[in-house]
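Anyone? Bumping this.
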Amino acid sequence: MAGKDKVSLNVAPGEAVGVVAAQSIGEPGTQMILRSFHAAGISSLITTKGLPRIIEIVDARKRPKFPMMYVTLQSSIAKKYENVRAVWREIEEVKVSSVLKSFSEDLRAQTMTLELDKEKLTSYEITPRFVASRLEKIPGASVSQDENAIKVKIKREDMKSTRTAFVDVRDASIKGVPGIPKALVQQEADGRFYITTAGSNIAGVMEIEGVDKTHVYSNDIFEVMRVYGIEAARNLIAHELYDTMSDEGFTVSFRHPSLVADTMTHVGTIKSIGRHGVAGEKESVFARAAYEETVKHFTNAGVFGEKDMLRGVAENILIGKQISVGTGMVKLAIKKDDLKNVKAKE
Amino acid sequence: MAYNYELIPEHELVSASEAAKIAKKFRTPLEKFPKILESDPQAKKLGASAGRLIAIHREDPTGKYVYYRYVVKS
């Protein structure tokens, strides 16, 4: 479609592009409810798909429900499974709890005894010594290690903070990238391996050797904004909306999700569509009152003496004036001198 | 699916005189343009301070076009 017929892609001045975009996304959306089903157990990694994903994007959640990443590796190692496996080991986060066989807590003595699972340790290629060295980094902890048994003594003021400290010990990260509880090595059709992860940490993954920094994909829009900037986030919103719809078999013109993305990122950060975002921060009192929480907006406007310039669509419909859309946008005027000619003719 | 890095369009700092021309072309004061924060990674890269205009050279299925963002304090 690109560049094929430029004229047909142009939009006439005054066209209500927002309404067209809303309808073009909304109509297929209604069908998605009926068709979407749960793909439980089909894929090893769960991601949000279909309508729930679209709602998630438009609501601008701080984190997606299932954040995930695709990590591509440098072409020199991408075909060698052993090397890819080595990178994978660096990525997947291993916590103390995942190598534990058993543990016991003594709150009064403020000591915790951990027994590590030998098999799990070898599969992650970790030594008990390494685990102990990591636990020493917890403030106020003194660690003694003997074979697979580790004793941690924690100095805390009271029993409650001792308890939370014990939980922190089990939750402590030993190796890997924080925020990535699970990673999988997968293979592409051409034989190259790549890594998919549950959880997202772009900056953390990029620090690992062997990762192709320009070929990382994350579905966490806010994280993309922090790492790459607002324009990349805007493009991710538009593409995610477009891709989720085409995955379900609906073709939408790219300009519609594109407009949604532009509206959401207009202020330089990501705002949701809806009460707490774009719709709730409109300039016009009437437009806000027409949407949700009518009484609240009117009382606030009364108390603070807000003005309504009646420039938008909703407020003009409300008061029964012509809306400034399409032909309603232009105003006709006549020059004073021309008026004389008209009168003369009569 | 496109990789995140590929989603970053080319950013370009616009000179003050050029910015005034653009504002005139769109008949809109620069303050009403779409915004980009001073702390944005791409704005930092260009060293753009608040009050400048950044031209963004976008390319998507609808074609090639230039989008503008006005730099504001974060």
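Late reply, but here is one note on the structure posted above: The mean pLDDT of chain B is 90.
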